[in-house]
Every structure is written in structure tokens, then in C-alpha cells.
Amino acid sequence: MKRPALRIPLLPRLRTGNPQLLRGLRARLVVGFLVVAALSALTTALLTYQEARNAILQRSQDIAVNDLRAQVNSLAPELPVPPAQADLDSLRVQLERSGKSRDWDISVHYSGVRDSGDGSLRGDVVVPDDLKASVEKRHVPAFQRVDRGGDPWLLIGMPVRQSDGRASALTVYAQLPLSAEESNVEALVSAAQRGALPVLVLTVVLALLAARGVLRPVRGLRQAAGRIAEGKLDTRLEVKGADEIADLSRTFNDMAARLEESMAELRRLESNSRRFAADVSHELRTPLAAMTAVTDVLDEDADSLDPDTASAVRLISQETGKLARMVEDLMEVSRFDAGAAALHLDEVDVGETIRKTLQARAWQKRVTAQLPADVRAGLDPRRLDVVVANLVGNALHHGGEPVRVRLHAPEPGADRLLIEISDSGPGIDPEVLPHVFERFYKADSARARSEGSGLGLAIAMENVRLHGGSMRAANSPEGGAVFTVDLPLRHEEAGEPASEGSADPPDDEASTAGGPAADDERDGVRSRAGKETHA
User: Of residues 64 and 408, which shows the higher confidence score?
Assistant: First the structure.
């Protein structure tokens, strides 16, 4: 029998141009539900089809065999022995009339009587040898399903026994169509096909509901993690139920609480350390000022002292100067940490400002400057002086001459300004490059005593950031270190402090916003002392 194809609606093909489609958890859950449902429906349909088909065909062939046996047992006793061909034809006609409702075709054979053409089966159907052997030699009823012209048929072979139970020479063959049974099987397949689509739709709905139940707490967890990443450490999740998601929510809340406590403690310690550094720096300024005045007087009379005393006086004067410059650097850093550093912007000629910085420190002969004219920007000239002085002084002391300062004129329409300071030294160790702007970092740890406080480049970086710019360090392919300062041409919040409402440092802000001459002199001293080491 030809097995009809079982058609199950296929899943919609996913677009290959959208690689994000299956990356979401919701999509994977829905696809997983659909795959499981489709496989379950397909397996159930195949098993149901196989069992139903076998049951239908078995029932039909059992009824047909019983009906043929009953008719043969009813008509065969009236047949004379040995029968003539006319008797066999008459028996065949009677059997066909009795099974007219089944539309079966009968063929009657008797051993020793030659078959006539009228007694053979229609459609030129040849009875298989194994079926004929079972009926005529072993004298047992047999049946077999065959295909004729694409339609299923049932062949039945029935041996006739005598009244005493012995086998006779009479055999009856019948063939009948199974088109009705095939129609029943196709109807069953069609019903399975019609029921597959609603099942898949229901599966999608259930998958979406399940995904919603699973993804809702996951989405809440993601949002809570995002708020914690933004600094909102008081974020907590609502715990519902006692499943794995609830356990995860409790663990997240515990983690957030401990993180909040740790961050509060870190902020307290950091605030205390900043306040301590600022207080110490403030308290040291007055005695250092007195010590500096005394050492200046001793320096003037050092030539009149004996050599040992004069050497000691100069050493004390030098170390006192270093300490004074370090205190000034710490005060400047404390202003940045407290958010009290103010930006006083002005429309300046950048090239002329850099040239004045070099002239004030007598670096014109040691530094090669490429400063285009009429490059104007909104900057704080005092802080730009600090940045350039620190970078150039650092290059002269730890790099190699000649030192080059290059101002890149911005292209028309550009909103950024580049200042490049390079030297001719050995460059910076690649392992040191990521740390050159860190506070108190020195490349050569063996040099515990050096002129620099370890704060010069850090202060320069803070001044650049206060302008909204950036600074980076690198090694030139031709040799030497290159520091690049990237500044905006215009600042949106001109003249406003970097942080409103922040606590004032213990030092007087008047020392920062005082007269230009005093500021330049103080920053010039810091720039010569707060240099970093390159290698």
C-alpha cells in the first residue's frame, strides 16, 4: 500500500541577514519550545498513523477473509466432483454476486481441470508464487496486499476442504480494492495536518508566557546591575517566591548591600586621606616659609663660612626648597581632589602664550618651537603655562636636547587643538608608559632621591582634564618621548568652577586666583621641581 506523505507545517525560515535574532534568551526559548513541540507532534503523528493504518487494513482483510470463507463454505458443497469447467464458472459467478458489495474479483481453480480465460483475475494480475504455494501445497488460507496501477488491492487465496476435513483439489482466489481504507488513512493524515498548526500556535503562546515569566526577573536584574554600575548602590531587587530566581535576587541584594558598605568606607577613608594631606600641607606652609627665609640668608653668607659649613648650609637650602615645592604641589592636588580648582578662561593666542612660558624660564635656546601665529582658543593661560612648563622641563631634565614644541594649527571647522612636546632622549620604557601620569610614580625605583616630587605630570594631566581635554604619552619612531596635549578650542562652561558646592581645601583660594605675576612665579618654580622620570 502506498504510504501517503505526512505534512507538518514547517517553522518560518529565519532571515540570514539578522544575526541578532537568535541571540536573545526569549527567541531561544521560543525556538526551543517550537522544536520540542514539532518533534513531539511529528513522533505522535507517525506512531498514530502507523497504528491506525495497520488497524484499518487488518480489520478490512479479516472481514474480507471471513466473508469469502463463509461464501465458499456455503456454495462449495453443491459443486459436483469432479466438476466441469461450467460448474467452476457457475461457482465463480455465484461468489462474485454474493460479494458484489465488496466489488471483489473471483477466480476458481480445480486440480486436473484446465482453466478457461473467463476464470482468471481482472487486470492481468498474476498470483505470486509464494501465495499460490501456501494455498495449493500447504492448503492454508493466505492473503497479500499488492499495488495495481498505483492503487492498493488485497489478494486472498482460500483452499476448500472436504466435509471430513481433508484438503480438496478446489481453490478460490479473490482480489478486492482497498480504496476505501486508503481514503480513511488519508483522512486521518489530513486531520493530523490540520491539528498541527493550532498545536504549534499554542506552543508559541505558551513559550512566550514561559519566557516572560523567566525573563521578567532577569530583565529586572539587568536593570538593577545597570543602576549599580551608574553608582546607585542603594538599588535592591524585590524577592518573590522561593525558586532559583528568588535565590539569585537575595544574593544580588546581599552583594549590593556589602558593596554599598564597602564603598561608603572607601569614600570615608579617601576623604580622610585627602583632608589629611591638605591639612598637613597647609600647616607646613608657615614653618617652611620661615625656613626658606632663613636658608636664603644663610645662602648669602655661605661664601664667608668654612667649606664644610658652607656645604651643609647649601644642602639644607636645597632640601628646604624641595620640601617647599612638594608642599605647593600637594596643595594644588588637594584643590583638584576637593573639586575646588577653578577655570578662568580667556581668549588667548596659544602660540604667544607658549612662547612666553619658554621665555620666562630662559628655555628659548634649548627648545625648538614651531608656533603658528593667530591660533586662538578659550583657555586658562595660567594653567596652560603649568602644563607646558611641566612637560618641557620634564623633557629637558630626563629626555635629551633638542626638545621640540609644536603647535598644530586646527583645520577649518575643527574644534580641537593639539600641542606636541618631544625630546631626543632614549624614550620611555613601554612598561612605564601606562603609569607616567600616576601620582608619585617614578620609573626608576632605585632613585629614591630625585628632584621631582612625582606630581608634575599628574598636575599637568589634571589641568588638561579641567579644560575638557586629554593628554597621552608615547615613543617616537625616530627616538625620544612624545607628549601630546589635546584641548578644545572653546569651553562651554567658561569661567565656572569644576565642581560647585564642594568643600574648600584648607589653603586660601586667593593663592590660586591671585595676581598673574605671583601665580606665574609660583607655577614656574613648581614646573622646574615637579618633573617626572622617563626611564
Answer: 408
Does this model's pTM top 0.90? My answer is no
Fold held by 340-529: Heat Shock Protein 90 (3.30.565)
Angle at 348 between CA 347 and CA 354, to 5 degrees: 155
Residue 20 pLDDT more than 70?
no
Yes or no: is domain 25-185 CATH 3.40.50.300? no
Compute CA distances 160 → 75, 188, 480, 517, whole Å: 11, 38, 116, 136
- Specify the domain boundaries for CATH 3.30.450.20 within the chain: 25-185
Backbone angles phi, psi at 437, to 5 degrees: -95, 10
Helices marked H in 76-136: 85-98, 129-136
**pLDDT in the model for residue 448:** 42
56-114 confidence digits (pLDDT tens): 777 877 888 888 888 787 777 777 777 777 877 787 777 777 766 667 777 787 876 76
> In the CATH scheme, what architecture does the domain 235-338 have?
Orthogonal Bundle (1.10)
- Nearest to 371, CA basis, from 351, 385, 388: 351
HEC string of 347-372?
Answer: EEEHHHHHHHHHHHCCCCCCEEEECC
3-state secondary structure 370-405: ECCCCCEEEECHHHHHHHHHHHHHHHHHHCCCCEEE
Q: CATH 3.30.565.10 in the chain: give the residue spans.
A: 340-529
Pairing of strands 105-110, 367-370: unpaired
Confidence at residue 501, expressed as pLDDT on a 0 to 100 scale: 34
